[in-house]
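Record filed below.
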Amino acid sequence: MTCQIYGYVRVSTKDQNEDRQMIAMLEFPVPEKNIIVEKQSGKDFNRPRYRRLIRKMKKGDLLVIKSIDRLGRNYEEIIQQWRYLTKEKGIDIVVLDMALLDTREGKDLTGTLIADLVLQLLSYVAQTERENIRQRQKEGIQAAKRKGVQFGRPKIPVPDQFTEL
């Protein structure tokens, strides 16, 4: 049985563009039919396409991602997911933006230690960035409200006979 190469591309919203990730996947090369694109937040791993991909993958398959924050944005969950994929499922992972995060290489104790340290550091950075985004968003909303910006749907007047109807 031959091992398969899969790519996982994630953007947080439908408005965001995944082109740079797609180019990186095709240059790796990941077969286009094996590239999974998901437009959903990385706050957790409850993402339908990601979960379907992981169920499909077998021992010895390779998962390619552009950067660790494309996998997720929650420190604990990234670490847990990485261990599940590499240790329990036996899947190799390549993070294109970080050569040290290539589980095909350095499977000895030192290589594993270095990969674990880098993974922990990058996972921390990914979660910190998510928290910073949320804080900036909160501050932006507060500033807009102070300027009188109304959020939500505009209020419509209720007809006089509303209660009778």
Summary: The chain has five helices and four strands. The first helix runs from residue 19 to 27.
